[in-house]
Amino acid sequence: MILTGFVFLMLTAALSPAEGQEIQKITENSVILTCSGSETVAKWYKKKEINPISTSVTYEVTTNDGIVKGEFSCEYTTEESKIIKHLFYLDVKVCENCYELTGFLAWGTIIGDLLVTAAVILIVYMCLPKNTGSTQQKASKSRTASAPPPPNPDYERLNHNTRSTDLYAGLHK
């Protein structure tokens, strides 16, 4: 249960980027970033470079080795001449057969698992024989019925005088 809570927390953190920072799409060899605060022009920078690498609202980071990694930032000016900068840190594995795990799919999987577990518990509960008071009544009647039976005459107590004294015939203290 604690692990499930931790997974919820991590999914929420992973699926809720800061305002203005969006990964628009992850393709088989690239990641498309969007600087959503800007409507027309945004300057994109890689790491702490001075010259912008792009001046559009979206920027596509491509790779050939399957891992998109690096620090990127977008910068734009608002109508009030205020410069706003958003930072992106990417460490994304891209591949042909990958698919994105959405929050809906993750929640659906966890809730489905809980429902299946509850169904198994209910089936086991329904299939188990019910304990009733009749077994307790039988036990109490058998105790009060009569005295215990006498010991079997075929088995008698050991007589120390008639026992064998061989090496392995008895218990030596």
TrEMBL record:
The keyword Amino-acid biosynthesis does not apply. The chain crosses the membrane at residues 104-128. Residues 134-173 are annotated as: Disordered. Residues 28-101 form the CD3 gamma/delta subunit Ig-like domain. Coiled coil: none annotated. Keywords: Cell membrane, Membrane, Signal, Transmembrane, Transmembrane helix. GO terms for molecular function: transmembrane signaling receptor activity. The keyword Nucleus does not apply. One of its GO terms (biological process) is positive thymic T cell selection. GO terms for cellular component: alpha-beta T cell receptor complex; external side of plasma membrane. Residues 134-145 have a biased composition (Polar residues). It holds the Pfam family Ig_4. It comes from the Eukaryota. It is found in: Cell membrane. It is a single-pass type I membrane protein. PANTHER family: T-CELL SURFACE GLYCOPROTEIN CD3 EPSILON CHAIN, T-CELL SURFACE GLYCOPROTEIN CD3 GAMMA CHAIN / DELTA CHAIN. This is CD3 gamma/delta subunit Ig-like domain-containing protein. It comes from Culter alburnus (Topmouth culter).
